[in-house]
Amino acid sequence: MKKNIDSKRIMLAHSEAKVEFFKTYLERYLRILYLAPIIEEINIFDIFCGTGIYDNDKKGSPIVAFDAIKKLREEFGYQKKINLIVNDSKQEKVSIVQNYIASNNNDDCEVKYFNQSADLMFKEVINSINLQNRKARNLIFIDPYGYKEIRKSTLQELMENKRTEIILFLPISQMQRFTTKAIESDLEPYKPLRNFVYSFFEDNHPIRQQTVSAIDYIEHLKEALRFNSYFSTSYYIQ
To answer: Which residues contact 33 (CB under 8 A, 6 or more apart)?
Structure first.
C-alpha cells in the first residue's frame, strides 16, 4: 500500500520549485540592491517560513534566504545592513529555523524571529516598513498555507511605501476549480475562497460570472494586483 507523504516534513516537488524560484529571484535582487549606492538597508520578510530544513535534507525558504545573504557577503564583503525577518504560526518550525541559522551565522545578517498568526505578522511588517527611511528596501515572501490570510487591502498597505516588492504564491488550480461553487454556496468551508474572490474582483468581473481557465485566472489576478499603477507579473508551476 502506498503511504501518504507528509509534506510538512518532506519537501515535495511543487514546494521545491517554489523555493528554487525564490532563491533565483532573491540572489539577483540582493546583488542589485547591495551594489546600489543609494540603498542603505535591505529587509527580507518570510511570513510563512515553514520547517526550514526538511527530513529529505531540502532547504525551505528561510534557509535559502539566509544562504543567499551569506553568499553575497562572501563575494562582496560587509557593505550594508541586511535583515532577515522570519515568522510562522508554529513555534516548533520557527525553532528549527532559528537553530540552523544560529549555528551558521557569522554576523552575515541580523535575524528576527516571530511566532504569530498571519494577520498579526502582516500588521507587524506594515508598522515596520512605515517607520523606515527612504533608503531601505523590502522583499516580502508570502507562501501561505492556502489563501484565507491573503487580502487585497493587506497587500495594498504593504506596497504603499513604494519601497517594497512581494513574491506571492497561490494554489491557483484549487482556487479555479472551486471558485464558482464558493460564490454560489453559503457553506462555511467555501468562505475563505469566497472572501478572497470578493476582495479582489468586482461583481461584474468574469471570475464572478463564469468558470474561467486556470491561465485566465492567473491573468485576472495579475491585473487585480496592479493597484495604484504598481507593476505585477506572473509565473506558474506545472
So the answer is: 39, 42, 137
φ/ψ (deg, to 5) at 84: -115, 120
Alpha carbon of residue 46 to chain centroid: 6
Decide: helix, strand or coil at residue 53: strand
Q: What 3-state class would DSSP assign to 4?
A: coil
Q: Answer whether 200's CB lies under 8 Å from 221's CB.
A: yes
Q: Are 139 and 27 in contact (CB under 8 A)?
A: no
What confidence score (pLDDT) does residue 7 get? 53
d(CA 76, CA 36): 13
pLDDT tens per residue, range 83-135? 999 999 999 999 999 999 999 998 889 999 999 999 999 999 999 999 999 99
Residues whose CB is less than 8 angstroms from the CB of residue 109 and which lie 6 or more positions away in sequence, other chains included: 66, 69, 70, 82, 83, 84
Whole-angstrom Cα Rg for the chain: 19
CB 175 within 8 Å of CB 224 = no
**Which of 191, 189, 131, 183 is CA-nearest to residue 161?**
131
